[in-house]
Structures are given as structure tokens and as C-alpha cells.
Amino acid sequence: MKLGLIGIGKVGSQILTDVQYLNLFSDIVVVDTNEKLARGEVLDHQHAQGLTSTSHIRIVSGDYTDLVDADVIVVTASIATDPNMPDRTALTKGNVGVVTDVMNRINAVTQQPLIVFVSNPVDTMTYIATQVNDYPNEKIMGTGTLLESARFRTLIAHHYDIDPKSVEAFVIGEHGQHAVPVWSKMTIAGMPLDEFETLSQKAAIDREAITQQVDKVSFDVFHDKGWTNVAIAKTTVELVKRLVFNEKAILPLTSITADGSLAVSLPTLVTRQGVNHVFNITLDAAERDQFEQAKAYIQQTIDTHFKK
Ligand SMILES: NC(=O)c1ccc[n+]([C@@H]2O[C@H](COP(=O)([O-])OP(=O)(O)OC[C@H]3O[C@@H](n4cnc5c(N)ncnc54)[C@H](O)[C@@H]3O)[C@@H](O)[C@H]2O)c1
């Protein structure tokens, strides 16, 4: 099983570290326009193979011809992130060029691998990727609001002082300021929120405050640490694992809409073949309104930076 990793900066290198311990891939090919960086990361990761905890797999820095027999490609390639950027959409102008280049180079050698986009703004980049050439759309997806969903569960769990894994909750819409936490469908160990609060006698949660936090926390990490990479790497690697194992997971991911006008994050059934089914779930009035705003924001970003 072969993984291609395009972009080996902060996020890509953390993905490489995590994926090395998954014991899922026998071959990993790293591609970055900064070839020196790619070589250095590969060498550093190879050295971990002198230890018993690390499987002896092949990790190489290479080019697109090495991806001809790849099973999955993860794209984190991006222009440099300005720490003072107001929003991820500030990366759009530069990353349209990056994603176009990446898609053309992949398409020149293969149409087999599933392609997972992480590069921001990830919804718009996923859409652009479907427009560049005739690469099969169902094989192209973005991590979407998978990361926000983990953050949402963590924020809720911290409030109640419980394990985030006991919280069943997800976020849809845009990866960014128009992320939509779906409060109307969240449960804790199967209990709707009201029932959980009554039975646990825990203090009521401030939904508005948590909703505000879902996107803001990423900037807290960004401003304090300088980048985000740990949670997004884990998010991506878990997704890749579920794809490769054909787990038929339903996850909040970004893919192109049925009418082909944009890409947005919704609960999505994914298999080893890629996007299988997108669930246009029922929402309450406020969530519906927020979801429409998310779509309008992504559409505006696409229309501003991309001419069909
Ligand atoms: N989707 C999410 O939830 C999420 C979370 C965190 C970060 N991100 C995004 O992931 C991207 C990467 O973040 P990072 O912190 O690793 O950035 P980074 O600047 O550290 O790394 C980007 C890498 O891409 C390489 N690159 C640029 N153009 C390329 C090309 N055409 N082909 C191959 N490689 C190329 C650069 O040389 C660099 O090594 C950013 O767009 C960031 O906003 C997304």
C-alpha cells in the first residue's frame, strides 16, 4: 500500500510522523517544491526505523512519477501562511495555483489514488481540484469540518468534564468562520443534551459561547504556537485509515455538490472508492440559515478567485 504526501511543511511532516506508526503503508513518497526540506524530513523519519517501535517501511522523497501506483495522496501543499491573516481565505489566491499545479501533475501520471485535500481554504481547494481536469470527482475530498467536529466534541466534553468520545456531535459547512455546529443532532451517550444535563446535574452549557469557540480555538493555537498541525494530522491520518480499510465511515467531509457549483462539508459516506453518498441532513431553522451562509461564503470565495 502506497501513500503520497504532497507538501511536507508543518502539517505534512506531522502526518508523516503519525502515519509511520499506523503500519498501514509499506511505501510513502514525499513530494515538495522545497526538495531539500523533503529530503531532510524523509531522512529524519528514516532514522526512527533504527528503533524497534518503528516498522521498516520505505519512505522516500520523490516526484510525481513515483505516485503512479499510489493508493492515497494527501495534499497539504500551500503558500506560506501569514500569521496576521484575518481568515484562511487569504490563502485562496496563491493556493488556486498550487492546487491546479498539483492536480495536473497527479493527473499526468494516474487517476487511481484517492486524493485528500488539507490545504486551505480547504472547501474551495477541494472544489478547484475537481475543476482542473477530468480526475474522477468521487476520488477527491477535503478534510472539511472533521477537525472542527473534534474540537466541538472536545469543547463540550471539557465543559461537562467527560470523555470527548462520549459526545456524539459534528460540525458541517465551511472549514473556518462559517462552520456550523449541529446542536440539534448532538447527544451524549445517546442522551439529548437536556436529558444529560438533568440526569448528570451538570451546569447548563452556553451554546453560543461554544459555537463561537469552534473556529476561534484554531487561531488560539495559531497565535500561541505559530501553526496548527497535531490535531489536523491525527484527523487526516484517521480519515486515511478509514478509507484504506474500506470502513464505510460517515464523516463530515467536503466534496463537490450534486449540482457542481461548490464544495461544502456534510456527513459523507466514504469507501475505498471514495465519496459514496452525501447526507443532506435536516437542520433546525437557525442551523439551516448558518449552513446557507456557509455555502454563500464558499461560493463567493470560488467566484472571486476562479473562472470556469
Ligand atoms: N484543513 C484543515 O483543517 C487545516 C488545518 C491546518 C492547516 N491547514 C492548511 O494546510 C496547509 C499546510 O499548512 P502548513 O502549516 O504545513 O504550511 P507550511 O507552509 O509549513 O507547508 C506548506 C508546504 O507546501 C510546500 N509547497 C508549496 N507549493 C507546493 C507545490 N506546488 N507542490 C508541492 N509542495 C508545495 C511548501 O514548500 C511547504 O513545505 C495550509 O494551507 C494550512 O492552512 C489546513
Automatic annotation (TrEMBL):
Pfam families: Ldh_1_C (PF02866), Ldh_1_N (PF00056)
Record bears the keyword Translocase: no
EC number: 1.1.1.27
Keyword annotations of the record: NAD, Oxidoreductase
Location of the active site: H175 (proton acceptor)
InterPro entries: L-lactate/malate_DH, Lactate/malate_DH_C, Lactate/malate_DH_N, Lactate_DH/Glyco_Ohase_4_C, NAD(P)-bd_dom_sf
Lactate/malate dehydrogenase N-terminal domain sequence ranges: 1-142
Protein name according to UniProt: Lactate dehydrogenase
Organism: Staphylococcus microti
Gene this protein is translated from: ldh_2
